[in-house]
């Protein structure tokens, strides 16, 4: 066994990791493992790289392998605990951090992290105990009357006159947001409540018609990168009836301007209902928002009352769109079984938090894979699906193309599955560290061929990503 070569590969992998080249690091750690499969460090390091790519399922597998190779290797438990934590599985994380503490009883860092984890689990138990379930639960939206909220005389920001959100209001609001000024909660309530009414009336799968000679733009994840969202509008124009958009989920979390992003998209929906379509992503959920920053940001910038309201409105977002009967658009991907028809998607009762399995879960979480067939998800939720699965789904539903988002791509997009599937991601230099471009896709009717436009990140104020995220999570990132 050439252990010296394996160590050299580990050193190269560590360098790639430091340069944020996580895929390259994974390849190099894999080569080291192929030479020496009995070194727990290689698996734990590869687990860390998977965590950086949000491939938590793969990270858990690798960390578990590190523990099998060396049951006393504390970093194996540490990495697995961190991956469980990122998935919101606090109880599983706690077991691993208890093990870290057992192996390293005098390590102050291990003690501190275990205490934080215990606090998080206690908080979760408390929230579960006081939660109201099912039919007893009252709509937060129905208890709010924004008309009764007074606007203080000293408020100088954007105002909605009456019931109608106008272009002038939107432009003033965007200008205020750009200068890090807040929108008055009266108008924030008005925008969110009006958007809720529109979204509730939509089916779970929305059919969109684009007239001959007209165009339609599809954007992927924005993830709270407000200044990059503004740049999309600079490059491609504001949404309108003549310039319609679909934003394909994951509007919030990670980036620290998520509130500005969601209020912008919702205000545009109020202003021009047919000019902007919104789909649900896996981050439009309570569990993700609690961990990745949106909940903390809303609490800091507006008030705690808004947290439940946004959660309620996110449950109204449609799950998929079809353009001109040809292009199927969904945040995550396809299904664990063949034979799913568009009519099955229309029938999904989406007015809930995303379940951990089934069609709705798979629409929000799944990813394509290069191999045919189906495989386990790198993320630990949903599944991976091959080109044959994509081809059968398109044939059975008389469609031409799948467009999805959900994954950061170096060029902002990737074309896979023999040209039948495109991933589009619209958050350039994701989390201020990935160095990727962003992209959007423009379709022109009637041929509906995808025209992909890429763009680079723009400067934003010095507020770091995850600034409002769960403190506990930040300790491990």
UniProtKB/TrEMBL annotation:
The active site is at 283 (proton donor/acceptor). Belongs to the PPP phosphatase family. PP-5 (PP-T) subfamily. Its EC number is 3.1.3.16. PROSITE patterns: TPR, TPR_REGION. It catalyses: O-phospho-L-threonyl-[protein] + H2O = L-threonyl-[protein] + phosphate; O-phospho-L-seryl-[protein] + H2O = L-seryl-[protein] + phosphate. Its main location: cytoplasm. This is Serine/threonine-protein phosphatase 5. One of its GO terms (cellular component) is nuclear membrane. GO terms for molecular function: metal ion binding; protein serine/threonine phosphatase activity. Residues 183-459 form the Serine/threonine specific protein phosphatases domain. It is an enzyme of class 3 (hydrolase). PANTHER family: SERINE/THREONINE-PROTEIN PHOSPHATASE 5-RELATED (PTHR45668), SERINE_THREONINE-PROTEIN PHOSPHATASE 5 (PTHR45668:SF5). The keyword Endoplasmic reticulum applies. It comes from Papaver nudicaule. Its cofactor is Mn(2+). The keyword Membrane applies. It is found in: Cytoplasm; Endoplasmic reticulum membrane; Nucleus membrane; Nucleus speckle. Interacts with PHYA and PHYB, mostly when they are phosphorylated and in Pfr forms. It is a multi-pass membrane protein. Keywords: Cytoplasm, Endoplasmic reticulum, Hydrolase, Manganese, Membrane, Metal-binding, Nucleus, Protein phosphatase, Repeat, TPR repeat, Transmembrane, Transmembrane helix. Signal peptide: none annotated. Transmembrane segments: none annotated.
